[in-house]
Amino acid sequence: MSIEISQVNKNFGDFVALEGIDLSIPTGQLTALLGPSGGGKSTLLRIIAGLEDADSGRVEIEGVDATRLPAQKRNVGFVFQHYAAFKHMTVARNIAFGLEIRKRPKAEIAAKVDEMLELVHLGQFRDRLPSQLSGGQRQRMALARALAIEPTVLLLDEPFGALDAKVRKELRDWLRRLHDEVHVTTVFVTHDQEEALEVADSIVVINDGRIEQVGSPDELYDAPATDFVLSFLGPVTRLGDLQIRPHDIEVSVTPRTDAVRGRITRWTRIGFEVRLDVTPSEGQQPPVQVTVTRAEARTLGLQHGDEVWLNPAAGAQAIRATNDTLHLSTEPQLGVTV
């Protein structure tokens, strides 16, 4: 394993930031620390980097006990949300900075800067100042600067949080391709579920200073271990005694005895999706949230006020809630095996 964290605890006064953290991060993997603001993910990243000291516990990086090592001796590259660029230095000088303070030969520094500029596609901007770059370009410069020192571990703290949605999407794709090229062990903090699901090999869900679940994006999305993981990784609605994702519900406009009958009380178009609130006809259940594609809505002729019948879609991962405990459904529910 590249990073081993054992029984790490961290308090800020009376506030428990981290409690009993045990985590193994494999070499060469891209791991996301995902959770809500204040959940402890950035604190854990800073402890790995040596920018914060744990109150207790152990941090090991590539077999070396780094618990008490200062940050500059951990061979860790760190990228902040707001770039932390040297404003008076060109792009090339920013990238070279870490190598210069390590007293590397000038020829080696020049070659590494050229290599990094090509890697992050900023060669034509080498003589510009950071203020002359776009936000996405500045973040790529920051990543190049972190990678130039050939770190054992690359740590990214909300690296795309300050950028607009379109640029974030472009940089997510770019980061995944970059990681596949350089294969450096990478840990990044995010509160963006889509970002973690799209980019990471493994996701660590952190909430209230504790790890809720660790696994691949598919494992966490399809087999959540806790109610928090289920609700945090995507929208959830209730269909009968099941908790299910809105896009995993099948809508029928013809009566079905094995389905939940209801009426569309809200119809909202958002891009290619149509989001429905379906109020069940029996009992005092809250509306069921259903998501269908625009094409499906048109094919079925769905309109506000229509009566419809709802079932879990074939192959859906529905969760039965029993005494606040989650169980993946393995028996037929509402006539469908899920």
TrEMBL record:
EC number, as in UniProt: 7.6.2.9
GO molecular function: ABC-type quaternary ammonium compound transporting activity; ABC-type sulfate transporter activity; ATP binding; ATP hydrolysis activity
Record keywords: ATP-binding, Cell membrane, Membrane, Nucleotide-binding, Sulfate transport, Translocase, Transport
Keyword Nucleotide-binding in annotation: yes
One GO cellular component term noted in the UniProt record for this chain: ATP-binding cassette (ABC) transporter complex
EC class: translocase
CDD domains (UniProt xref): ABC_CysA_sulfate_importer (cd03296)
SMART domains recorded: AAA
ABC transporter domain ranges (all copies): 3-233
InterPro entries in the record: AAA+_ATPase, ABC_SmlMolc_Importer, ABC_transporter-like_ATP-bd, ABC_transporter-like_CS, Mo/tungstate-bd_C_term_dom, P-loop_NTPase, Sulph_transpt1, TOBE-like
Source domain of life: Bacteria
Keyword Transport: yes
PANTHER family given in the database record: SPERMIDINE/PUTRESCINE IMPORT ATP-BINDING PROTEIN POTA, SPERMIDINE_PUTRESCINE IMPORT ATP-BINDING PROTEIN POTA
The protein, known as: ABC-type quaternary amine transporter
